[in-house]
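ESCALATION

Customer reports they have been waiting on this structure for their group meeting. Please prioritize. Original submission:
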Amino acid sequence: MIAAPEIPTDFNLLQESETHFSSDTDFEDIEGKNQKQGKGKTCKKGKKGPAEKGKGGNGGGKPPSGPNRMNGHHQQNGVENMMLFEVVKMGKSAMQSVVDDWIESYKHDRDIALLDLINFFIQCSGCKGVVTAEMFRHMQNSEIIRKMTEEFDEDSGDYPLTMAGPQWKKFKSSFCEFIGVLVRQCQYSIIYDEYMMDTVISLLTGLSDSQVRAFRHTSTLAAMKLMTALVNVALNLSINMDNTQRQYEAERNKMIGKRANERLELLLQKRKELQENQDEIENMMNAIFKGVFVHRYRDAIAEIRAICIEEIGIWMKMYSDAFLNDSYLKYVGWTMHDKQGEVRLKCLTALQGLYYNKELNSKLELFTSRFKDRIVSMTLDKEYDVAVQAIKLLTLVLQSSEEVLTAEDCENVYHLVYSAHRPVAVAAGEFLFKKLFSRRDPEEDGMMKRRGRQGPNANLVKTLVFFFLESELHEHAAYLVDSMWDCATELLKDWECMNSLLLEEPLSGEEALTDRQESALIEIMLCTIRQAAECHPPVGRGTGKRVLTAKEKKTQLDDRTKITELFAVALPQLLAKYSVDAEKVTNLLQLPQYFDLEIYTTGRLEKHLDALLRQIRNIVEKHTDTDVLEACSKTYHALCNEEFTIFNRVDISRSQLIDELADKFNRLLEDFLQEGEEPDEDDAYQVLSTLKRITAFHNAHDLSKWDLFACNYKLLKTGIENGDMPEQIVIHALQCTHYVILWQLAKITESSSTKAFTILCDILMIFSHQIMSGGRDMLEPLVYTPDSSLQSELLSFILDHVFIEQDDDNNSADGQQEDEASKIEALHKRRNLLAAFCKLIVYTVVEMNTAADIFKQYMKYYNDYGDIIKETMSKTRQIDKIQCAKTLILSLQQLFNEMIQENGYNFDRSSSTFSGIKELARRFALTFGLDQLKTREAIAMLHKDGIEFAFKEPNPQGESHPPLNLAFLDILSEFSSKLLRQDKRTVYVYLEKFMTFQMSLRREDVWLPLMSYRNSLLAGGDDDTMSVISGISSRGSTVRSKKSKPSTGKRKVVEGMQLSLTEESSSSDSMWLSREQTLHTPVMMQTPQLTSTIMREPKRLRPEDSFMSVYPMQTEHHQTPLDYNRRGTSLMEDDEEPIVEDVMMSSEGRIEDLNEGMDFDTMDIDLPPSKNRRERTELKPDFFDPASIMDESVLGVSMF
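Update from on-call: job pushed to the front of the queue and completed.
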């Protein structure tokens, strides 16, 4: 337990002292009279009246008791038997009524009400201790805090402000709202009674100095919110004082005959009372600021520091006359060097609220000049959120005064428009737009109605091009456009202006764009069109496509229409102008991908389509560059859409072009491959250029009808024979042949894929470890083991093509309903596929755990594949009993997780889905047979995996709620009957490792699975130890022997087999239950028959045919007995009880080694001596080392 330090928390606020808040933040002193009335003067208006002072007739004595007091809270408005903490925790919407109840209680007896409030803060800190009336009367605050610290339980580490869950997320806002409403409701009387606020401030100051994090965090938040509420009160008082002063001056300036002396006296008295109240508030704020803020803004906990900085930003914004000066701004400036991004972020958001108000700019000049470089450097902060807010802050600084930021400062922000993190780039784009694009010359006012080259955006587009070229990141135009998309949409969508700058001649006196500038403009124009048509950021920014809103979809359609109408006419002209420039043409040819092709017909633009097709054809003939040719191919692909009426027109043009290219290629190839002639370079170039064009088109178009494979094969064959074929020709011939094969593969039907699957399974079986059987060790290099990805692909194929509903596979090739015989044939094919995969499992070609997805289908598809799945279970159990058991429990876990994903954790345990999983578990349990000795280790391992799965996911709401997977124990209990009696005890001990003491006491419905599973382990009698002769195998395979061994020997063997659950290996393959036999490779099974339909014709299968008729396997009786995989020891000497190690270790709470010697003088604000009679006479040195939260470079900074 952490001992409470000696903290002088009970400072005397009744001391005669100065009333100035600080030398830098004096409130306005009207007529130079800022003196406080001493004791004995007339009470101020609204202060201590008899009702408030009398404490309900008790005179501050023993607190009242009776039916109207329950749990320390006065019953009002139906809130009964509840403490303040409980009411606030409930998040009551009517917080004002809660506060009104407390005020009534305070007027009745202020000691009892304050005791409620003190316990409220203690409970909000997560402390279970309670401050009694006796403690409140006779103990100092430091003693009370020490007592609460001793009763604080820090083992959990959680307290209300940090707890998870929806209820606790709302608690913080309710807690803060309560404090704000409390001050607001008490601002006219109670806060001036020299008792309530003194007590609260003293308590919070003491708690904020505690070494207990929960106390320090909660009290700091409360004190800062209390300060914020008091600042609001002070602001209102200041406004009232100004109004009163104006009224007083106006009345005094009247002529003597019209002047009302009584009114002057009333106004003077009112001003005097307001001044006294303001002095009171100043004293309170001074106490909180010096007692809490000055220490806690450099606390070791980042969240506490963030609270302080957030609130001081509110004070400076709310009451700038008092707080917005360098004495307070320096705290924000210092904290911008904080090591935690959360705190730096609060600094920036606080400053944004100040810079947003241009009226405050004059008060920020010194701060800006001192900390501007730090803000600029924060644009490169490692925390993206901090960098974004730093850029936004600089944008506000730029708007307030452009002279503040130098050209170098701006350039540091400019390059961030190319950042891969979109929020950073967007913020930088807004800064760039404000700096370079938001200003207009007076001459441009008359150009607002003009369009195109003479429009107002022409110069801005040129500026954008110049900026893009100067940044020297030409491949990132899409990033630049995306960065400015939100703030400069009108500029970026002015495609008419961009088109005009490219096609029209420059005006007189206007400088024409250079070739490099035109290329940049075309690239930017393409990026803007892509962004408008696709409505998502470029690749590398964002997580993918998002769902568009109705408004965004309408904007997208409008933009595509605008793009099509403009560029359907302009694109042929642009292609004609730049037809010889490969870079420009490549970008321009991408525009049709974003057209609305229907407009070609509805807008009667067919002649422009013909012009476009002619230009593309000319470009194909002129260029051999791969990028240009692929752009032409993609453009044809985009235009050849069968949904639109222009398809026939484009298809004819494409076919004519391919015909010419294919004829030319065949003609050139004949001349090129003539025997006895040496091909010259010109012939090789002609063949290569034509082959390039054909290859580029074959990438996006199916050119199978031109039979390009034969001529390419002939070309490659000749090159192999002669060895003198040019390398580029060989490369493009291979690439073209590659596309031919890909297009053929794309036409493969479903039946081909099933044949391929069967062949693949047979190949894997042939080249498995079985190939080495019979002493053929020399074939070991041929053994192939499929990797995990191939195994997953095989399993996915089975799940997609075998485990399907009958109605999903009932259409024949001619599209008519199949008859009964066809359905049987389809079922036979699916059974063959499943049998081929199960064969890989049984012969350990693939991992056994892949069978989990097969086993979980046992009940659902029992009629179709039940015999195959059951036989697979039997064979896998012969290979490895334990791994088979782990696979069975894995299949149940998968079904359980699928149910959780569909229904959530609050599912109904009586639902059909959950009942189905339990029934499947019961069927699995039956497959283990009656001989419990043979399966005891496998069953025990099954229970171990099930228990671990049930307790794997703790409940986020705390230990009082069950683990999320606890209901799985209900399923696991189906296997309890397969445990021997002594094994049940061992499993029960293992279960208790995961249980807490509170769990064992729970009796609610949600804990029923745990109770039922425990009962299933505790149940059992002597019949559990009876030996059962093994021999039960698959159906009809053997006849169980009715002979049994003598009972004495049987009892000795059974009782001697105790399971050791104490030692677990860290490896995933480690055994929970150790076994004594040495490890041997399983005896090789008989080489399986192949199921490939290429090797043999499938035999028509009747529904009643068994699994063995599909692919024969030798049964247990005709093969060599398997020497199962044994590890460790499974028998303990004699009848000793199993030893279970206690894995619980006592943990000691560690207290941070906090430095009590603070040498951080620059952090203390220089406040003058105060006349406030409530000011603390001494502030406790802080406990925290600033070096733990700030860079060393900050500590020596000289301020202002």
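Sent to customer with the following note: The first helix runs from residue 50 to 53.
Escalation resolved.
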